[in-house]
């Protein structure tokens, strides 16, 4: 038992020590929650989402609807990604798409419409935000036109100019506005199915407001050169 003269002092010291301990625990928790959010952000970036969309997704998950507890963000994002390694998804793609759409609308990004003529079947209309490629729209567009486009443009290499399955013929009256292919793109087009003077890769055509009303046609077949790359 400490002497009575020391007891008040000891009580204050114990209180200070306890407070310091609690503060330490709170700081550690804050750090680990911040680390957890950073891990979730890194994971989203690894999946190919831009930093704006990744941050937007993390912000959206803060909504009370998700019931997210501190330190659980990474686990929730991984859960939403589902079996992403084999092309699966458990809700993350839809969430990211909604976040991106909202960001683009808020920024007043122009919507560009274009027309697609398949080699057989009726022509159809598509639209997408300026800055997106035809491949982006085929892969992530939501309207009926985008879904049809995804049936015609396989985009097997995800836009790295290694497959030619996104090959389109730009209508001759639009070719100057779209512009010629780069040297690298032309190398791939030379190997595409029945290339023409106005051939372009859909993954390299970036929509701009000046391309409103663009017309492209889809060849009757596509050479998928990606299947012939010897991965080791
Ligand atoms: S998506 Fe493969 S070359 Fe365009």
Structure description:
GO terms for molecular function: 2 iron, 2 sulfur cluster binding; electron transfer activity; metal ion binding. One of its GO terms (biological process) is P450-containing electron transport chain. It comes from Prymnesium parvum (Toxic golden alga). This protein is an alpha+beta fold. It contains eight helices and five strands, in the order ααααββααβααββ. It has helices spanning 7-46, 51-61, 73-81, 92-106, 134-140, 144-152, 172-178, 183-189; strands at 111-117, 124-129, 167-170, 199-201, 214-217. Strands 2-1-5-3-4 form a five-stranded mixed β-sheet. Helix 1 (7-46) packs across helix 2 (51-61) and helix 5 (134-140) crosses helix 6 (144-152). The longest helix has 40 residues, at 7-46. 23% of the residues are buried. The model has no long low-confidence stretch (mean pLDDT 89). FE2/S2 (inorganic) cluster is lined by residues 135, 155-157, 159, 161-166, 188, 201, 203. FE2/S2 (inorganic) cluster binds next to loops.
How many runs of DSSP E, i.e. beta strands?
Answer: 5
Q: Segments where pLDDT lies below 50 for 5+ residues? A: none
Order of helices and strands: HHHHEEHHEHHEE
The secondary structure category is alpha+beta
> How far is it from the N-terminal to the C-terminal residue, by CA?
74 Å
Largest sheet: 5 strands, mixed
Small molecules bound in the structure, each named once: FE2/S2 (inorganic) cluster
Share of helix, binned: 40-55%
Radius of gyration: 27 Å
Strand order of the largest sheet: 2-1-5-3-4
Overall mean confidence score, pLDDT: 89
Number of helical elements: 8
Shape verdict? elongated
Strand composition percent: 5-15%
GO cellular component, one term: mitochondrion
Protein name: 2Fe-2S ferredoxin-type domain-containing protein
InterPro entries: 2Fe-2S_ferredoxin-like_sf (IPR036010), Adrenodoxin-like (IPR001055), Beta-grasp_dom_sf (IPR012675)
Keywords: 2Fe-2S, Iron, Iron-sulfur, Metal-binding
């Amino acid at each position: 038992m400490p002497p009575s003269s020391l007891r008040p002092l000891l009580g204050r010291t114990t209180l200070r020590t306890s407070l310091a301990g609690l503060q330490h625990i709170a700081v550690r928790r804050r750090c680990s929650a911040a680390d957890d959010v950073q891990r979730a952000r890194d994971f989203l970036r690894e999946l190919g989402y831009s930093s704006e969309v990744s941050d937007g997704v993390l912000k959206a998950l803060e909504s009370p609807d998700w019931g997210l507890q501190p330190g659980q963000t990474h686990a929730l994002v991984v859960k939403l990604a589902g079996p992403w390694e084999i092309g699966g998804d458990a809700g993350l793609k839809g969430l990211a798409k909604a976040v991106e759409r909202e960001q683009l609308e808020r920024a007043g990004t122009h919507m560009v419409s274009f027309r697609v003529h398949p080699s057989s079947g009726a022509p159809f209309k598509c639209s997408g935000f300026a800055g997106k490629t035809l491949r982006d729209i085929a892969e992530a567009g939501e309207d009926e036109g985008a879904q049809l486009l995804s049936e015609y443009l396989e985009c097997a290499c995800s836009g790295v100019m290694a497959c030619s399955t996104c090959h389109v013929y730009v209508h001759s009256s639009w070719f100057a506005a779209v512009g010629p292919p780069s040297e690298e793109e032309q190398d791939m087009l030379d190997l595409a199915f029945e290339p023409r003077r106005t051939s372009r890769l859909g993954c390299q055509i970036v929509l701009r407001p000046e391309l409103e009303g663009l017309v492209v046609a889809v060849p009757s077949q596509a050479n998928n050169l990606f299947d012939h790359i010897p991965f080791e």
